[in-house]
């Protein structure tokens, strides 16, 4: 399974991006890091009284491995398209909001992250491996410092 997860990471890193900039953070968690992530999922479930965090924590616990895909740099493309909700890219880049995830984020950078996830999923499918895409898993990973990315998604990998 480790080989497939590494191939998924390569697929994500080599996915097409708008500016061909390496702004993607790809991390394959080891067993100890996976346990930290699961524990955080359970803690968030209790804090937020949201059982879905526990359910996803159980899924991660049952996985063969976890790949984190995150967006590191969010310098806007300079198109001034206003898809981010700001009048131009300069205005967007002046605003910094930090909760667990950081924002605002250029829509095209978010699309780049989505394309990287899609490439990783395609590789998993080719090798008959099941993968979930978890926003909440990424949120937990960010909270415990397993990722420094602005936005991160967790992709637990399972044998089908």
Describe the structure.
By secondary structure, the chain is α+β, with helices and mostly antiparallel strands. The protein has one domain (8-74, 87-153): NADH Oxidase (3-Layer(aba) Sandwich). Helices cover 48% and strands 18% of the residues. The protein has 6 helices and 6 strands; from the N terminus they run H-E-H-H-E-H-E-E-H-E-H-E. The protein has helices at residues 2-13, 31-48, 51-62, 89-94, 107-126, 135-143; strands spanning 24-28, 65-71, 97-98, 102-103, 129-131, 151-159. The strands form 2 sheets. The protein has a 4-stranded antiparallel sheet, with helices on both faces. The radius of gyration is 16 Å and the shape is globular. 38% of the residues are buried.
Shape: globular
Q: Major β-sheet, in short?
A: 4 strands, antiparallel
Within CATH, the superfamily carries the name: NADH Oxidase
| Tally of individual helices | 6
Structural class: alpha+beta
Q: Which spans have pLDDT < 50 for at least 5 consecutive residues?
A: none
- Class, according to the CATH hierarchy? Alpha Beta
The sequence of SSEs as H and E is HEHHEHEEHEHE
Helix proportion: 40-55%
Oligomer: single chain
Instruction: Let me know the average pLDDT.
Output: 91
* N-to-C CA distance: 11 Å
Report strand order across the widest sheet.
1-2-6-5
Q: How many E strands?
A: 6
CATH fold annotation:
NADH Oxidase
CATH architecture: 3-Layer(aba) Sandwich
Q: Domain count, please report it.
A: 1
Percent strand: 15-25%
The Cα radius of gyration reads: 16 Å
């Amino acid at each position: 399974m480790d080989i497939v997860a590494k191939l998924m990471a390569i697929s994500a890193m080599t996915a097409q991006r708008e500016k061909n900039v390496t702004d993607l953070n790809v991390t394959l968690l080891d067993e100890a890091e996976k346990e930290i992530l699961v524990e955080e999922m359970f803690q968030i479930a209790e804090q937020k009284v949201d059982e879905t965090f526990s359910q996803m924590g159980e899924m991660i616990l049952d996985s063969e491995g976890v790949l984190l895909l995150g967006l590191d740099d969010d310098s806007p493309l300079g198109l001034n398209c206003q898809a981010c909700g700001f009048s131009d890219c300069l205005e967007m880049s002046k605003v910094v909001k930090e909760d667990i995830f950081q924002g605002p984020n250029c829509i095209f950078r978010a699309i780049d992250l989505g394309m990287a996830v899609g490439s990783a999923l395609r590789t998993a499918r080719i090798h008959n491996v099941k993968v979930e895409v978890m926003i909440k898993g990424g949120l937990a990973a960010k909270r415990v410092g397993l990722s420094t990315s602005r936005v991160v998604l967790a992709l637990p990998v399972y044998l089908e």
